[in-house]
Amino acid sequence: RAVLSSQYAPFDNHQACAVVEQALETMDDVLVAHGWTNQDELKLDLLLPDEMKDDPTNQWGVGFSMENNEIGSGSFKVKPYVFRGISGNGYRWGGFSTVVKVDQMHKGNIDYAKLARNVKQAIDIALTEGRCMLNLLSLAQTVNITNPSTVIAGLMNEAGLTRLDVEDVARAYRRGRNDPRTHNTAFGVVEAISTVAREKHNGDRRIDLEMSAGKLVSPKSNIDLPGLEKHWANIEETAGRKNDKEVVQAVQNILDGAK
User: pLDDT (tens digit, 9 = 90+) per residue, 99-153?
Assistant: First the structure.
C-alpha cells in the first residue's frame, strides 16, 4: 500500500489499539462515541462511563481521541475529547497542557511499554482537561450573542471556515432557535459548527471542524465567565469590522428562513 524508507517503523492500527487497551487495563468499560477508518487510517473517539456527567439536558461525556496511520502519512496521537450525548456532537481543542504529548512518529525502534505508559499519562491529563472543557461549555450557554449573523459570517476569518461551511452552520444554528441554551448564545454557535461536522463530514474534515468549535469556546483552561464574555465580544466586534456584507446577508437570509 506504500513505498517507505528503511527508517519507517511499522505500527499497525491493531498495535495502536493494543497500546491504548493496555493503558486502559484498570478501567472496566470504554465506549466508542465515533469511529472512522479506511485501509490505512484509524480514528476513534473513546468515552469512559465513569466520566459521564449526570446532566440529562446535555449528557456530557469526557474521553479522548486516538489516531493512527499505517503507511507513514500520520503519526499515532492521543488527544482530549468531549462528547455531548443529547446531540451526538464532539468537541476538540488540542489540549491545554504541554506536560505529555503522545505523537509517536513511525521511525526507529518503538518502545511499546514506554509508549503505553505515555498513553496512560496522556489519558489522565485528557480527562482532567475534559472536565475543564465541560465547565467552559456550560458557561458558553450563558454568553449572549447580540448579532448571530455577524458572528457566524465572521467564522470565515475567525475559524477558517469556507462560505459553504458558514451557510451550513447558519442552518444548524437556526434549528436551535427554540432552545435557550443555543438561541443567541456562544454555545449555539459552537454547537452548530459541531453539528455540521457530524452531519456532513468524516475523517480529517470532521476533526478540523470539531477542533474549531472547541477552540472557539476554550481560549484557555482557567478562563472565567467575564473572560469568556469578553472573548466572544471581541469575536463579534472583529467580525463586524472585517465581514463581507454579502456573506452576512446570506447568513441573515438563512436565519430568517428565506433559504
Answer: 445 665 656 677 778 888 888 888 888 888 888 899 999 999 999 999 999 999 9
Residues whose CB falls within 8 Å of the CB of residue 164, separated by 6 or more in sequence, listed in order: none
The single-letter DSSP state of residue 13 is H
C-alpha cell at 156: 470565515
Write 216-219 long-range contacts (CB < 8 A, 24+): 216/158, 216/159, 216/186, 216/189, 216/190, 217/91, 217/93, 217/133, 217/136, 217/137, 217/140, 217/186, 217/187, 217/190, 218/93, 218/96, 218/132, 218/133, 218/136
Determine the Cα–Cα distance for residues 213 and 247; give it in Å rounded to an integer.
Answer: 20
pLDDT tens by residue, 19-30? 888 888 877 788
Look at 57 and 168; give whichever has higher pLDDT.
168
Region for residue 18 given its phi and psi (left: phi exceeds 0; alpha: psi -120 to 50; beta: otherwise): alpha
**Three-state DSSP class for residue 10:** coil
First to last CA, the chain: 45
